[in-house]
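During the reporting period the student researcher (J.K.) took over the structure-prediction task from the postdoctoral fellow and processed the backlog of single-chain submissions. One of the processed entries is reproduced below for the supervisory committee.
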Amino acid sequence: MTDTSALDLSRRCEASIIASAASSPRVATFACGPFLAILSRSSAIIPLNAAVPVAPLGSDDQVAAALVELRRIFVEHQRVPSFEFHADLWPTLPRALERDGYHLHERMPLMVCTPDSFRPCAAPGVSVRLLDAGATAEEVAAFEVIRGEEFDFPAPPATAEE
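J.K. obtained the following structure tokens:
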């Protein structure tokens, strides 16, 4: 994969993750300069509460002001300030965060399965299907339980509208 296509794929992944999180009823979002804070309504664990860059960062002073406001938002909601971003897309952000007192907690590679790299696998007793508007309440509830297991929090009860 070329550097250009890898960056494009990173942009698409980041945009998809942000759009999905921001549209979820499970989170509250707060725009703050070039950042969006995405905070879980039900859990304070760090992976569920993060700020993400969503626009060009601007000057050092603009970034510093936005970071002060983000810290206030996180503290007000009893969350630990943290960031998640693709470093290749935001090369100046790590230094700005370090200047503001943040430290690198973890660096994780972006792992992507594309149509060209997909290799199907079958497992006994496992089936996969699209969860859509025709899903039953039991299927939605099962999805919520499975999705919640990763972060060790209980799934909310499904409502009739869901």
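The committee noted the following: The CA atoms of residues 10 and 111 lie 10 Å apart.
J.K. will present the remaining backlog at the next meeting.
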